[in-house]
Amino acid sequence: MTANSPTRYAKYKAIVLAVLFCSCFTLLLMLFSMGKQLFPASAERWAYGLLGTAAGLLTTLAFIRFEKLRLADVGLQWRKTTLPYFAQGVLLGVLVMGSMAAMVFVLGGLRLQWNTNATVWGLLLAILPLIPLALMEEIGFRGYALQRLQKAVGIRSAIWITALLFGVYHLLNGWSWQAAMLGTTIWGLLFAWAACKQQGIAMSTGIHFAANMTTSLYTDTTPTFQLWQIQMANGSSMQTYQQTWLAEWVPHVLLLLLSIWLIERLVKQQSKLRDA
Questions:
Q1: Taking the chain, what is the end-to-end CA distance rounded to the nearest angstrom?
Q2: Who contacts 22 (Cβ-Cβ below 8 Å, separation ≥6)?
Q3: Which terminus of the chain has a smaller tally of CB atoms within 10 A, N or C?
Q4: Please, what sign has the CA dihedral across residues 27, 28, 30, 31?
């Protein structure tokens, strides 16, 4: 252990603070979310996203004030590179989620039918609220918690801890074990990798937004704003569809392998920079 290496106490303290931060954010989010009832139903997602973002920022301000830190110290600073990083994240998110969706369709025997009633305006109204919805969770899990852990326990451990906390957060929000731990935890690895690589949340927010946006473009019911309706390739009703294990597991396993490869590559790059 070098003179600048964190002590065991410092590591435990960082883990406890990260868990406490995510817990406080979740509780404050639940409290703030009651305010969405004051808004019309058409603005519910906007209200939830903006109130959640406020909850994340207030939690962050409380913790950084306690530790005498700045927003820049936890990756929450607007920079000239913020929008370019966000755009890169959007492109990566569309590529990854689009590839996963394509695998599900092929392996599950599904096809897409174009929705001729879809409009650009209706689509924008539906997907734009996804930006604050993604931002609030990035502040809550890839802001203070991730950056604080990264300095104390290293990139790899910080990413895995926050990804697990992200999965537990969705579990507490009513998601199934499979959806929370198989889905959001693995996505949490990719989001955290992007936040560590960029040392901020612009790219991770872009990936998060794009992943949610891509899945919003199709539906298995009668489409409203969605561009496509999912149908079974043989023309039978989606009510009889049962997802195959290949369609369920293969995309997530590949996403897990991709995330692990990116994380290990980043760890090696950071190690070389420290040794240089």
A1: 18
A2: 140, 141, 145, 162, 165, 169
A3: C
A4: positive
Q: What is the pLDDT along the chain (276 residues), one digit of tens a residue?
A: 555 667 888 899 999 999 999 999 999 999 999 988 888 888 899 999 999 999 999 999 999 999 999 999 999 999 999 999 999 999 999 999 999 999 999 988 888 889 988 898 999 999 999 999 999 999 999 999 999 999 899 999 999 999 999 999 999 888 888 888 888 999 999 999 999 999 999 999 999 999 999 999 998 888 888 999 888 877 666 666 667 778 888 999 999 999 999 999 999 998 888 776
Does 189 map to a domain? yes
Would 230 be classed as within a structural domain?
yes
Total of domains in the chain: 1
In a domain, 3, yes or no: no
In the sheet where 218-219 sits, what is the strand order?
110-114, 228-232, 218-219
> pTM for the complete prediction?
0.93
User: For residue 117, what are its two tokens?
Assistant: 């009633």
Give me the phi and psi of 116, to 5 degrees please.
-70, -15
Query: What does the block give as tokens for 155?
Result: 């990139």
Within 8 A by CB and 6+ apart from 104, the residues are: 110, 243, 247, 251
DSSP assignment letter at 235? S
The residue count for the chain: 276
Pairing verdict, β 218-219 and 228-232:
parallel
Residue type, 59: T
Residue pair 19/153 in contact (Cβ under 8 Å)? The answer is no
Residue 221 dihedral angles phi and psi, to the nearest 5°: -110, -175
Domain-located, residue 223: yes
Coil, strand or helix at 199: coil
Query: How many Å apart are CA 54 and CA 62, to the nearest integer?
Result: 12
Give the domain extent around 33.
8-275
